[in-house]
Amino acid sequence: MNALQTPDTNDELAGLGDDRSLLLVDDDAPFLRRLARAMETRGFDIETAGSVAEGIALTKARPPAFAVVDLRLEDGSGLDVVAAIREARADTRIVMLTGYGNLATAVTAVKLGALDYLAKPADADDIVHALTQQPGEKTDLPENPMSADRVRWEHIQRVYEMCDRNVSETARRLNMHRRTLQRILAKRAPR
């Protein structure tokens, strides 16, 4: 049996009612397609959006029972989509995804009504578990959390993007020598 076909997934969905509508909002098109296929095989009725505007429009047209929303989208913040979903349907089970996790945005996402906050690339099984967890249920620690080198690299990438890919400004904000930053940016992401 492959990773997309798990017998316990339908058991997890069994107690959640007949409405299996799932809105996926992410601007990474290949990731969005893979996740949509994986979630469809797990019994969800999928709708996808590639932007904040699309996500809000789909939410207003057909408020979903479940939602997986990326935090950073090209046209804004996924938190705006979470707020729109909460306004349209209070019982939607929402999970935030991000490649740039930090405590402040995690707290904001939870305050807006997200059940969980997962780092990308998230496994479809982890997303299903987060969507179907019972209130008060604690999530398991990840088997292979990001290494310290990877966390550092992710932080540098986040600041680099916030500085509109300006190396000099990024180096200044990180209190790092410009050439050191250029060497780090030229390398592949650590595992």
Automatic annotation (TrEMBL):
One of the record's GO molecular function terms: DNA binding
CDD domains: REC_RegA-like (cd17563)
Record keywords, A-Z: DNA-binding, Phosphoprotein, Transcription, Transcription regulation, Two-component regulatory system
Entry annotated with the keyword Transcription regulation: yes
GO biological process: phosphorelay signal transduction system
Response regulatory domain mapped to chain residues: 21-135
Location of 4-aspartylphosphate modifications: D70
Phosphoprotein among keywords: yes
Function recorded in the entry: Member of the two-component regulatory system ActS/ActR acting in acid tolerance. These data implicate that a two-component sensor may be involved in pH sensing and/or response.
NCBIfam families reported for this sequence: ActR_PrrA_rreg (NF033791)
Protein name (database record): Acid tolerance regulatory protein ActR
Source organism (scientific name): Martelella mediterranea DSM 17316
Species lineage: Bacteria, Pseudomonadati, Pseudomonadota, Alphaproteobacteria, Hyphomicrobiales
